[in-house]
Amino acid sequence: GKIAGADIEVYLLEKARVIFQQPAERNYHIFYQICSNAFPEIHKECLIENDPGKYHYVAQGMLTIDNVDDAEEMRITDEAFDILGFTKEEKLSMYKCTAAIMHFGNSQWKQRPREEQAEAEGTEDCEKVAHLLGIEAAELIKGLLKPRIKVGNEYVNKGQSKDQVTNSIGALSKSIYSRMFNWLVERVNVTLDVKAKRQYFIGVLDIAGFEIFDYNGFEQLCINYTNER
User: Which residue intervals define the domain Myosin motor in the entry (predicted)?
Assistant: First the structure.
């Protein structure tokens, strides 16, 4: 017999890693691969530099790993996309979403004196995020500072503090990565799909990015509680 095909299911993606890493850990490898010198043209398209240490969401832990060449790994990643039938546009869109998260982490905000309202401390990073995601920068900033919420039967704009804006950006960044990850898996399954009836299968579990943390956030609490139940 031989393997006829494969099917991947998303079991658990550790989204917290996207915005925070322990000192001895890294973010997901793609963030460091995309900063490497493997494809300089991607830097121009994604508005990024080749130093991952300049991006807060990427630089909280280790920037390099012994015996790991991020440039070579990036070439392998890009080639894998080609083998799986991804188009040039699909690959670039994923790289842009990845870079948008990096820029999101560098955005700066400040609290207005004597007010429960934050304001942007420079808009360059948010403008880059908006450009990469194909949305209007002004609308993005407005949505972060004064999101539109429903109260009763009416919609109102609610002012956000600096901490609330920072938390919103973190949640958005994790959501972007999670949705991109899910789309990627679905896209890979299209290529790997086999129409023949499945008779036997081998299951392999690999939790993406799962580690034992010194500090556990709300996401880890939910995961642990669910597993124990």
Answer: 1-229
